[in-house]
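Practice problem 4.
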């Protein structure tokens, strides 16, 4: 079994994962053509019909005595931040690395809504174990982050992650994936010309004041990393304060990206070419082009940045005592139905059932 590598800041990798997929999508703006848009839309729509192992799996569900249909206007992309440096395809002694952050990026193309849903890396779920040759060994209950490491390459690792996350989310169709390594951090920030922020309070770590509250900063390079990463580990609640700071940075960087790209449509191409060694995705050019035209019309609402319901607890029985995340599946099901499904009218449901029986 592959060994676990050193942990990094989960939200930091999540942040960069989301931004990378945004730029992957926006890269298509510079080459937008009606044909590519049309073909990309068709392909992505068809994918959701067969996204599961069984055709139409996840398309229709029953919940609290009612039938619901998956929204065809939703496009789900699984984004994984991998705790490794260098090329995303490069392995060290056959180890792909671990998924240090897992985020479902969901685009509602009808209502112009963008949802970012974090699935904690410590989520306990069923994962597929393989040997060093990539051959299946067994399934076991373990942390979701470990699933990525069992792929023979980045493509297989991403496919394993898609299956695992879809299972957690009740066979929710996930049509595409994108993963990246940590070296994309300074590239994304600096290519956009940096980001302006005003901390709401002093940012202190290791007895050092890194940023002063109320003072404006133009973040470049390593300063951007420090702003979203530093916290006083001895102060209770500092993790939540850092989370608020990270959301502030994310929104500022997103707005900066949209503004810069609208004034220079070649910028996404330059950025994507720079980060491409650190990114693995199965999005094609026509799909990117279609999604780019959708994404530029969406206003990102920070309230749509959420985490699946559940609780992080210390489990003494897991590897001599570790923190694990237990999903609240009742709360999760409520959220899934509200976000991704629409109720099927009773007469339509009965008619579909009758036709299926004849």
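Answer key:
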């Amino acid at each position: 079994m592959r060994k676990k590598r050193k942990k990094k800041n989960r939200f930091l990798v999540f942040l960069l994962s989301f931004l990378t997929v945004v730029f992957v999508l926006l890269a298509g703006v510079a080459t937008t053509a009606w044909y590519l848009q049309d073909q990309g839309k068709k392909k992505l729509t068809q994918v959701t019909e067969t996204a599961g192992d069984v055709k139409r799996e996840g398309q229709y569900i029953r919940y609290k005595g009612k039938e619901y249909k998956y929204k065809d206007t939703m496009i789900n992309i699984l984004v994984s931040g991998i705790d490794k440096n260098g090329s995303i395809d490069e392995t060290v002694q056959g180890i792909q690395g671990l998924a240090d952050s897992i985020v479902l990026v969901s685009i509602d193309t009808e209502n112009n809504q963008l949802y970012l849903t974090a699935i904690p890396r410590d989520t306990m779920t069923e994962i597929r174990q393989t040997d060093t040759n990539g051959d299946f060994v067994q399934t076991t209950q373990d942390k979701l982050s470990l699933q990525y490491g069992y792929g023979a390459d980045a493509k297989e690792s991403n496919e394993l992650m898609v299956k695992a996350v879809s299972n957690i989310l009740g066979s929710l169709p996930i049509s595409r994936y994108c993963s990246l390594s940590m070296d994309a951090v300074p590239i994304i920030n600096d290519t956009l010309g940096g980001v302006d922020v005003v901390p709401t309070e002093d940012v202190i770590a290791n007895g050092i004041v890194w940023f002063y509250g109320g003072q404006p900063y133009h973040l470049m390079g390593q300063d951007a990393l420090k702003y979203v990463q530093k916290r006083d580990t001895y102060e209770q609640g500092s993790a939540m304060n850092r989370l608020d700071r990270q959301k502030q940075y994310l929104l500022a960087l997103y707005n900066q990206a949209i503004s810069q790209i609208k004034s220079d449509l070649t910028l996404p191409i330059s950025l994507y070419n720079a980060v491409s060694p650190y990114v693995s995705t199965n999005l094609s050019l026509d799909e990117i082009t279609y999604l780019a035209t959708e994404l530029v019309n969406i206003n990102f609402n920070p309230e749509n940045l959420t985490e699946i319901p559940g609780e992080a607890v210390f489990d003494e029985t897991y590897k001599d005592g570790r923190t694990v995340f237990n999903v609240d599946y009742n709360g999760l099901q409520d959220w899934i139905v509200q976000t991704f499904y629409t109720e099927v009218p009773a007469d339509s449901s009965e008619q579909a059932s009758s036709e299926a029986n004849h």
